[in-house]
Amino acid sequence: MCATCGCSDETGVRVSEPGHAHPHEHEHSHAPETRTVTLEHDVLAKNDRQAEVNRKSLQDKGILAINVMSSPGSGKTTLLTRTILDLAGELTVSVVEGDQETLLDAERIKATGAPVVQINTGAGCHLDAEMLDRALATLAPPRDSLLFIENVGNLVCPALFDLGESHRAVVMSVTEGPDKPLKYPHMFAGSDLILLNKIDLLPYVDFDVDDFLRDARKVNPGVTVLPVSATTGENLSTWYTWLRTRRVCT
Ligand code: MG
Ligand code: ZN
Predict the structure, then answer these.
(1) Which of 77, 102, 190, 223 is most buried, by the most CB atoms less than 10 A from its CB?
(2) pTM of the predicted model as reported, rounded to 2 decimal places
(3) Distance from the CA of 77 to the center of ligand 1, in angstroms?
(4) What's the pLDDT tens digit per position in 115-124?
């Protein structure tokens, strides 16, 4: 649970207290060693209202907005830079970069020639709809273009914050291990697309693609999974086809 961002305000949070090793003098029941704390909905309700404003504004301009989420190091920025270069001349792309600190990823995107705005969240661990609204005011993506929103690297709270995007894509590399869909079900259940990245490393890691697909479909039966390598370019054409078929306007 995230103390700084309020991201667990959505629903009940189960707090387990296994072991109970601490010394204490007070009397209480030891029977069920879990308790449920229900927190307020305000943070997410406010976010959802702004997200709807963002969504309408993006749709009115025919902008296809993809919220790209992952844990740190999955290869999001590499995937995006390669995508921008490969689709140059075909699609107009701009990018909102989310990171706690630095302009490093924004500089990598900028080197491709695509317009980019960096949001630094400081202690925050996800982007929210208001941050996107502010970024869009600066970025002003053109009509009928493609907008990538690279979220803060984190498989937990970005899943709870609607930004007003058209689609959600989660990037996961084979080096992370196949158990992530079951461990982070909100992220995988809420995404339209899973890009399984770094498949060029499959010979060197303990990662069973079939196990991964089975678990991903357990939490999200309809999800599209595209195994790719942003480094070698293997299978990236499937990702480009996915993007082309989702463009609102041509
Ligand atoms: Mg990045
Ligand atoms: Zn958070």
Answers:
(1) 77
(2) 0.86
(3) 4
(4) 999 999 999 9
